[in-house]
Design goal:
It comes from Saxophila tyrrhenica. The protein is of the alpha/beta class and 336 residues long. The protein contains 14 helices and 14 strands. The chain has one domain: 3-Layer(aba) Sandwich (Rossmann fold). 40% of the residues lie in helices and 18% in strands. The strands form four sheets. A seven-stranded parallel β-sheet has the order 3-2-1-4-5-7-11, with helices on both faces. The protein starts with 5 loop residues before the first strand and ends in a 7-residue tail after the last helix.
């Protein structure tokens, strides 16, 4: 392990990566952070806010740059979206390190890559907007194998599986971190809102909150701040603690981590925003109407899967922000 740890972060200007940067810098000001940033001007701004940050100007298509920067850093957090060649290039860079501890059977954890639980949605069944009668929460402990073996044509699934296959082949320990709906205002400097801002905007422009069907479809959620803290927690266990704690971290096929605080149905969310904006009854729309509103509308507003973050709980991590209404209304609350 290097004397002064260095973390390579991608997506530092994004909703999730910006929050990770803020959480990491404030809790570990001595950790050096290298951040992949596309624009020089933004890089300068972030550097002025984070003295521990060295911008790496480049794009995810600069594979040789990703490999060499990951190799120098030794630990990587990838929050720049789904991109299999880029993540494989990061993994290649991490192979230059000693990746096993004596007597260890699993490779050392060196990469956190963001994914999402939309891989759990079975889109071969019709979207109804309702909670399926056979639906049950997915545990990242007891359902780990099933989660990583869903058909690879599902959202995120092909990328998750390709990343883990490459990690195993290269003997690099990867943790896939999978939050559901994210509530609250991003802690980063650049992008502070995400999908929940889009629904709010739609509701405002229609003058009515809406759901598909009865809106009993339910997603698990966590706050963006807690997601940032959970990622920093996993990095700490991987990089800053002794071999005993490191050994407790699952990686690769034992390395899929949900981050979850609670569950929220579409109808409860719609009622809350309707009440806040004084819009009256929630309207039920069809799948086709949702698709007209947004090409991805039916999936965003008509599906839901509940998750259980049992792995993080076993490691002793708990979320702090437990009130979704408060997070919805935080700082002006342009989200729902
Ligand atoms: N937001 C959510 O609700 C949510 C929920 C579950 C999982 N996730 C997962 O979290 C990850 C991050 O999502 P996000 O919401 O933070 O996305 P985001 O706000 O759109 O941020 C994307 C980040 O990636 C960077 N990026 C994109 N393409 C790039 C490229 N070709 N080269 C270099 N940088 C590039 C962007 O840089 P620029 O600023 O230069 O564009 C930005 O920093 C994704 O994998 C997503 O699936 C997000």
């Amino acid at each position: 392990m290097p004397a002064s740890p260095c973390v390579f972060l991608t997506g530092a200007t994004g909703f999730v990566g910006g929050t990770v940067l803020a959480c990491l810098s404030s809790s570990h000001p001595n950790i050096k952070i290298k951040a992949l940033i596309r624009q020089e001007a933004v890089a300068k701004e972030l550097q002025s806010l984070h003295p521990n940050l060295t911008p790496i100007i480049g794009d995810l298509s600069s594979l040789a740059l990703l490999t060499s920067t990951a190799s120098d850093a030794g630990f990587v957090i990838h929050a720049a979206g789904e991109n299999i060649p880029a993540v494989c290039a990061l993994i290649d860079g991490l192979t230059s390190h000693d990746n096993t501890e004596s007597e260890a059977t699993l490779p050392l954890p060196r990469l956190i890559s963001l994914t999402g639980p939309r891989s759990l949605i079975n889109l071969s069944k019709p979207i109804t907007g309702n909670l399926a009668t056979d639906s049950r929460p997915w545990s990242d402990v007891t359902d780990a194998d099933k989660i990583l073996n869903v058909p690879e044509d599902r959202i995120h699934a092909g990328a998750d599986q390709a990343i883990l296959t490459h990690s195993v082949a290269q003997c690099v320990g990867t943790m896939l971190v999978s939050p559901g709906q994210l509530w609250g205002r991003g802690k980063g400097h650049v992008k502070k809102e995400s999908n929940s801002a889009l629904y709010y905007k739609m509701v405002k422009s229609r003058g009515r909150a809406f759901v598909i069907g009865e809106g009993t479809a339910t997603w698990s959620w966590t706050s963006i701040g807690d997601l940032g803290q959970a990622i920093v927690f996993l990095m700490e266990q991987a990089l800053l603690r002794g071999s005993e704690q490191r050994a407790q971290l699952g990686v690769n096929h034992e390395g899929y981590y949900f981050v979850r605080t609670g569950d929220l149905s579409m109808i409860d969310r719609a009622r809350a925003v309707s009440e806040r904006l004084g819009l009256g009854e929630v309207e039920s729309v069809s799948v086709d109407e949702a698709k007209k509103m947004h090409p991805f509308g039916a999936v965003m507003w008509g599906c839901g899967e509940r998750t259980r973050a049992d792995k993080l709980a076993q490691l002793g991590w708990m979320p702090n922000d437990t009130d979704w209404r408060e997070l919805m209304q935080e700082a002006g609350g342009e989200r729902a």
